[in-house]
Amino acid sequence: MNSDTLDTLDTLDTPAAIVDISRMERNIATMQKRMDTFGVRFRPHVKTTKCLDVIRAQLRAGARGVTVSTLKEAEACFAAGIVDILYAVGIVPSKLARAMALKRLGCDLKLVVDNLAAAEAIVSYCLDEGDAFEVWIEVDTDGHRAGIEPEQDALLDVARTLHEGGMRVGGVMAHAGSSYELHTPEALRALAEQERARCVRAAERLRESGIDCPTVSVGSTPTALSAANLDGVTEVRAGVYVYFDLVMHNVGVCRLDDLALSVLTTVIGHNPEKGWVFVDAGWMAMSRDRGTSKQARDFQYGLPCAIDGTPIEGHLLIAANQEHGILTATDTKPGSMPESTTSASDETDVTTRFPLGTKLRIFPNHACATGAQFSEYHALAPSGELTVWQRLHGW
């Protein structure tokens, strides 16, 4: 933790990103214990927090290595003494020199590919440089985004190109991103098993072809928390679990009192006729992410809470302009579209219940997107003390 301390939530300027340390540490401990029970390595994805204070807490709990989504994250982690780094975004030729610079400083950097062109580019670059990378192959286990399907010929074509070109094929990795679209334990368990089985099958095909494949890496927060079996898997990755958010709450893998990230905001005005409360957290603070809009419960732009983190029942942040958020009483029955339920007869209610200057906290839809709006977090200790944690920006 840094030494720059502030006083309390009551006096902190707003909007501000608040990390509840107790909740965060509980989330970290729960995930790590689960991975330890399975006997697999846990490699957290740091793209959610982009914060060395949080990453150090994950490593202290037992995580081994990190997953990053930008080379800037990799550089910052390596500068902080973290050597084992998976860059889990498909590499392009223009970034190979920057990756090689890290490797030559002593970083155990793993690259990821999912197509022949990328594999050929790595081999060509390394032949010119007289060096080599460890490369993992991304496997598509759920048709969600990137990767090679485990039975495709391309899997062996890519692996042979890397192997024969002098690269080390370090493993296969998968990300069951479609888990975000699910919401029942049965569906989540089934997808976790599908992710495991298909990634393990890809590794088996490589080994059968004579190419070593020591690592089988799977992971998303929902599947990591739902898997009943990890046979054949050597490591798991997950990121948003450290904070959780409203999307994860709707998926069903956390409770509201597990959410560790919120935005502190101040009431800056009212529209009594419409029953609106204006706060200084617009989309510049909350982000435009509307990840709950297709889920059973739409939280609009966020769930408002009292300053102690207790949700304010029947209210949502229904709109977000650049610097203004609009909070109102809503119909929040599952599947409904929230609309104001405040009538003209309640005109004075919003001004008396939420007086000008009132401090509130808002839980976000997507912790990664909301965190990205801030250059720093204010970490809240059980004592009420706030500590500034710096956050990485850029690529």
From TrEMBL:
Keyword terms of this UniProt record: Lyase, Metal-binding, Pyridoxal phosphate, Zinc
Gene Ontology biological process terms, A to Z: D-serine catabolic process
Cofactor requirements of the protein: Zn(2+); pyridoxal 5'-phosphate
Annotated InterPro entries: Ala_racemase_N, D-amino_acid_metab_enzyme, D-ser_dehydrat-like_dom, D-ser_dehydrat-like_sf, PLP-binding_barrel
Name under which the protein is recorded: DSD1 family PLP-dependent enzyme
Family that this chain belongs to: Belongs to the DSD1 family.
Domain of life: Bacteria
Cytoplasm found in the keyword field: no
Gene Ontology MF annotations: D-serine ammonia-lyase activity; metal ion binding
The D-serine dehydratase-like domain, residue ranges: 260-381
Organism: Trinickia dinghuensis
